[in-house]
Amino acid sequence: NAGVTQTPKFQVLKTGQSMTLQCAQDMNHEYMSWYRQDPGMGLRLIHYSVGAGITDQGEVPNGYNVSRSTTEDFPLRLLSAAPSQTSVYFCASSTGQGNTEAFFGQGTRLTVV
Amino acid sequence: TQLLEQSPQFLSIQEGENLTVYCNSSSVFSSLQWYRQEPGEGPVLLVTVVTGGEVKKLKRLTFQFGDARKDSSLHITAAQPGDTGLYLCAGLNTGNQFYFGTGTSLTVIP
Q1: From B6, B45, B101, residue closest to A101, measured CB to CB
Q2: Any CB–CB contact under 8 A between B50 and chain A?
């Protein structure tokens, strides 16, 4: 059982480039989320989805887009990378039922130069 | 806006010492979770506390949920090098939305 799979694990971008971070889960979870992790800031929510076709903004959505065409996949798109987007990105999924547990991918370390 | 503040942010102790990490908020949560994250990995759930005043023990780790369901603490007895990692608290609201704390980086020196 793979759980939550993120690709790539590492990425270096030049300022202004665009890219997509991939996230897939095989647990049939309705809830999926993207977080960024910066030193001393914990995990900050970028975008989330409560089911296929439904997405919403989190705490720090600017510069990022998401879509949820299937239950399994929740890609995160950086439209025009900026150095401020240098961070570690985590995708998470959960059932959304009761006191649900969040299952995380291994993260993508992104550097924008 | 960071709803959950953790203290301390960094903690470096000798093997065998005890420690407490705090997670504080002005918001009420339906439940509170603690996660541990190791370098290069995503966070992994340690425990969920639901009832105000609830205490849960996981071997040498003791978790407590505040009476008002706004805060929590994690106490580790006789810390070991294997306890090293980043500890994150997370509050869940009634919509099952997670709010993560600022994190506490623990280093246990052999």
Answers
A1: B45
A2: yes
CB A36 within 8 A of CB A104: no
Residue A68 has phi, psi (to 5 degrees) of -140, 85
Residue B2 above 60 pLDDT?
Answer: no
Task: Locate the chain A residue with the closest alpha carbon to B88.
Answer: A42
Mean of the per-residue pLDDT values of chain A: 94
> Before B8, cis peptide (omega within 30)?
yes
Q: Give the SS3 label for residue A85.
A: helix
User: A31 vs B96: CB contact, 8 Å cut-off?
Assistant: yes
What's the full length of chain B, in residues?
110
Contacts of A21 (CB under 8 A, 6+ apart): A6, A7, A8, A11, A34, A75, A76, A77, A78, A89, A91, A108, A110
- pLDDT grade for B13, boundaries at 50, 70 and 90: very high
